[in-house]
Task: inverse folding
């Protein structure tokens, strides 16, 4: 079965620090990849997505992610975090064929200290 | 305003008492989906629907039912709720379930006693 792993469950950073959140998936075929963010008390919002083409994807609010097919990874990065980035971040994967189910990772809670 | 709405937002019920959580979208999306979110497990897909009268199981369908009689509505039905269905539920929709973004509703927090 397809699975998505986010190894960092809770990350604490100071403002201006750089961020990298890991995401690995297990499915070997063609996939669509997503990062969603959930701010406290709010619903999920899409940060960025990858379907094909340039493996370095830029999203909203200065976030970017790099798809490395050989490593089955789609890590999220931001050069300098802000207090307002405090949220929970979810990686999600969907197979490009067959069932359109979206499989989420367990999430990474990011806490940015001012 | 384009949105996905869910009702109720909060619900406390008892074991075995049937309940329905409604989901509606105003974007003419074909694809709709239900997820549950639990601490440490992230979001898991319960059911999804590719179009009217077309539904399929997600990763955790046991104990849930859905129906899609109209394009805009995708209710989630718990025929006999149990405490292990206490969770935060999200409805989502997208244009066709393909490459486009999924839009999420605000969530329904359910407590089953």
Result:
């Amino acid at each position: 079965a397809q699975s998505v792993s986010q190894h960092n469950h809770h990350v604490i950073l100071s403002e201006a620090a750089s961020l990298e959140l890991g995401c690995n998936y297990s499915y070997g075929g063609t996939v669509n990849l997503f990062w969603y963010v959930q701010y406290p008390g709010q619903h999920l919002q899409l940060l960025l997505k990858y379907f094909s083409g340039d493996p370095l994807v830029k999203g909203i609010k200065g976030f970017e992610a790099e798809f490395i097919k050989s490593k089955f990874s789609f890590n999220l990065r931001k050069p300098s975090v802000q207090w307002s980035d405090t949220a929970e971040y979810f990686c999600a994967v969907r197979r490009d064929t067959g069932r359109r189910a979206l499989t989420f990772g367990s999430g990474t809670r990011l806490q940015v200290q001012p | 305003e384009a949105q996905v709405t869910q009702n109720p937002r909060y619900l406390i019920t008892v074991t075995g008492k049937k309940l329905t959580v409604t989901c509606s979208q105003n974007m003419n999306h074909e694809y709709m989906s239900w997820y549950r979110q639990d601490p440490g497990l992230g979001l898991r897909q319960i059911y999804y629907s590719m179009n009217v009268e077309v539904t399929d199981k997600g990763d955790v369908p046991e104990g849930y039912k859905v129906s899609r009689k109209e394009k805009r509505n995708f209710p989630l039905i718990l025929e006999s709720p149990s405490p292990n269905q206490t969770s935060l539920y999200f409805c989502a929709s997208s244009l066709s379930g393909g490459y486009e973004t999924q839009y999420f509703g605000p969530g329904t927090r359910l407590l089953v006693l």
Summary: The first strand of chain B starts at residue 4 and ends at 7. Chain B has a mean pLDDT of 93. Chain B touches chain A at residues 31, 33, 35, 40-45, 48, 50, 56, 58-59, 90, 92, 97-99, 101-102, 104-107 (CB under 8 Å). The radius of gyration of chain B is 13 Å.
